[in-house]
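Continuing from yesterday's entry. The apo prediction looked reasonable, so today I'm repeating it with NAP included to see how the binding region is handled. Same sequence as before; SMILES copied from the compound registry.
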Amino acid sequence: MHGFVKGVAAGTHALRGWPSSAYRASKVGLNAWVRVCSREPRFTSRGLHLNAVCPGWVRTDLGGAGAPRSVEVGAASILAAATRGPSGPTGGFFRDGAPASW
Ligand SMILES: NC(=O)c1ccc[n+]([C@@H]2O[C@H](COP(=O)([O-])OP(=O)(O)OC[C@H]3O[C@@H](n4cnc5c(N)ncnc54)[C@H](OP(=O)(O)O)[C@@H]3O)[C@@H](O)[C@H]2O)c1
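Holo prediction written out below.
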């Protein structure tokens, strides 16, 4: 992520394969952080699962009134991942309870 910030400052981020969107880059960083940290003993030793979730395009302040999903539907996507229990996955990225690509 520091590379993205430095690349933007130097005008070279696109040459290095970064998107020209801080929002998208931040989500890549978040998903990578989840994947890396989910394997760290400080989490695994305590049985903690780390997953990232996409709620879909939701009608919030950020998503705007034109988004197709209600807050309830977006929250259900998050709950689906948060309630998988001890045998559930860790280090993944999910949408509506299913693995999603990123
Ligand atoms: N909406 C979508 O379509 C969509 C799609 C995919 C992913 N997401 C992700 O879902 C997350 C939430 O999005 P949203 O649509 O709910 O956004 P939102 O409507 O803009 O709400 C953001 C919330 O975060 C709080 N917040 C912002 N900065 C904070 C800080 N520094 N410390 C504590 N709270 C802070 C805000 O609090 P205040 O109200 O007090 O300012 C607000 O409650 C974001 O990470 C977004 O990228 C959203």
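Comparison notes:
- The radius of gyration is 16 Å.
- The chain has two domains: 1-37, 48-102.
Will overlay with the apo model tomorrow.
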